[in-house]
């Protein structure tokens, strides 16, 4: 190979190394932080469109925040309907394994146990069961606290519907077939194990009236809210979309 060829090869290798380094930086940084804390890496929602990777990692870079705003801008605005007729049973039995077309569906485990196992560290399951989670350590994305949870104190960790079921109902889910309501209620993209008190404070609120106490996670939270809305063709209140865009500036 001549001198010109050697130079071209070296330059090509340098460019390739640079590209790999840029694309791997976030994953390597997450992995390093996780190794230090003894937890698995949490996923940035833009990298987790199916909701099968654990937790929520902050959306930090200017590029990713611009991508987040574009995604949120695609969410439709709709009118808020009445809450009349809503009950939890309108979305099927609690943590049903009967949903179709969502991750973990019909695997023999209740949806709650699936997402506890997805997000928790140091998982302990009931003796003789491959499903039932009875203890774990959770790094709560909404408050940033670490919770050592046992099933005897079940309410300390609750599984939040990122878009609350009552909100979905008022924004049009009352017109959906039951099968679609069962899907959204059991879709891991829409589910987040969190500190119970934070979930209670949220209630049925949208992002204009409630956001996670941890400011650094708020853009990630509204991205997840938008991902669920887009997946199910669900509109949001205008004030909520405005608040969502503001979190990713």
The helix/strand class is alpha+beta
Please give the count of helices.
8
Give the neighbour order of strands across the main sheet: 1-2-3
Identify low-pLDDT runs.
3-25, 30-35
How many DSSP-defined strands?
Answer: 5
Largest β sheet strand count, sense and barrel closure? 3 strands, antiparallel
Q: Mean of residue pLDDT? A: 89
What does this 3D model show about the protein?
The chain is α+β, with helices and mostly antiparallel strands and 249 residues long. 41% of the residues lie in helices and 11% in strands. Residues 3-25 and 30-35 have low confidence and may be disordered.
Write a brief structural summary.
This protein is about 40% helix and about 10% strand.
Question: Secondary structure elements and their pairing?
Answer:
Elements: H1 3-37, H2 62-73, H3 111-119, E1 121-125, E2 133-139, E3 146-150, E4 157-161, H4 165-170, H5 178-186, E5 191-195, H6 196-202, H7 218-231, H8 238-247
Antiparallel strand pairs: 1-2, 2-3, 4-5
Key descriptive features of the protein:
three-stranded antiparallel sheet, 249 residues, disordered N terminus, 41% helix, alpha+beta
């Amino acid at each position: 190979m001549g001198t010109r060829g050697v130079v071209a090869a070296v330059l090509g290798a340098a460019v390739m190394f640079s590209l790999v380094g840029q694309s791997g930086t976030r994953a390597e940084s997450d992995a390093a932080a996780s190794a230090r804390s003894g937890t698995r890496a949490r996923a940035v929602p833009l990298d987790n469109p199916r909701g099968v990777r654990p937790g929520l990692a902050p959306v930090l870079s200017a590029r990713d925040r611009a991508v987040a705003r574009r995604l949120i801008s695609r969410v439709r605005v709709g009118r808020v309907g009445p809450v009349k007729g809503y009950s939890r049973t309108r979305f099927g039995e609690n943590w049903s394994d009967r949903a179709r077309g969502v991750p973990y569906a019909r695997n023999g485990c209740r949806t709650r146990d699936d997402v506890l196992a997805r997000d928790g560290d140091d998982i302990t399951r009931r003796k003789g069961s491959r499903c039932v989670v009875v203890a774990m350590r959770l790094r709560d994305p909404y408050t940033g606290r670490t919770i050592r949870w046992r099933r005897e104190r079940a309410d300390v960790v609750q599984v939040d519907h990122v878009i609350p079921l009552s909100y979905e109902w008022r924004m049009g889910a009352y017109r959906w077939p039951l099968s679609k309501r069962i899907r959204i209620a059991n879709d891991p993209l829409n589910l987040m194990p969190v500190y119970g008190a934070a979930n209670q404070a949220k209630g049925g609120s949208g992002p204009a009236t409630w956001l996670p106490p941890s400011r650094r996670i708020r853009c990630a939270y509204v991205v997840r809210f938008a991902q669920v809305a887009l997946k199910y063709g669900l509109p949001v209140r205008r004030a909520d979309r405005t608040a969502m865009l503001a979190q990713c500036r």
